[in-house]
Structures are given as C-alpha cells and as structure tokens.
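Example record

One chain of 122 residues, shown exactly as stored in the release files.
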Amino acid sequence: MMVAHRLLIGLAGLMGAAGVTLAAAAAHGADASRLATASAMLLFHATAILATTALLARGLLRDGIGVVAAFGFAIGAALFAGDLSLRQYAGHALFPMAAPTGGMVMIAGWLAMTLAALVARK
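Predicted structure tokens for this chain:
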C-alpha cells in the first residue's frame, strides 16, 4: 500500500498547485467564478487526500477502503475542476455531465471514508 500512499501524496501536491493556480486566475480574470469553484474543490480535496493518507498510516482507517476514498477525492476533483476549467477556457464541457459525475465521485469518496473509519481494524 505504500506505493498507493506515495502516489496519493503526489496527486495531492499536483492538485494543490493546480488549485492555487486556478485561484490566481480567478482573482485576475473577468467572470472567472468557475475557476474559483474549481480551485476550492482541488484545494479542499488535496487536503483531504493528505489527511486520509495520514490516517491510513496511523491505522485509523481500513487500508483498502481508505485508499479507494482518497482516489475518489482525486478523480472526482479532477473531473469537476477539469470540466469547469475547460468550460471557462475552451467554452465546452470535458464530456456531458463531467462536473456532476466528479461531484458524485467526491461524495462517494466521503462515504467511503466514513466506512473506512467504521470498519477499521482495532
């Protein structure tokens, strides 16, 4: 599982960098509310991934389910933020229902996090 944890930490770093970049673009661009929302999702879920990996390392979450939760955060935030960013810059969606799909994946990640805590090994 250590490879998955390192990958997740790396993804969180990339998400954090992208989130800060989008926040700056939103602050300096006209009509860039989509970018601010995309930035928030990336930054919040990058932090959630780091917290999840820390909880996994401490044994407070069930490994498999916790890793699924963290990857759900990464995939969901990427879909959500990617769709909003593409709409802002290119004027079209990533694919139909990409942002709502990303949102549902993030929600599923949070539910998986809950389950990982409830069924953690004692």
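Notes: Residues 1 and 110 are 20 Å apart (CA to CA).
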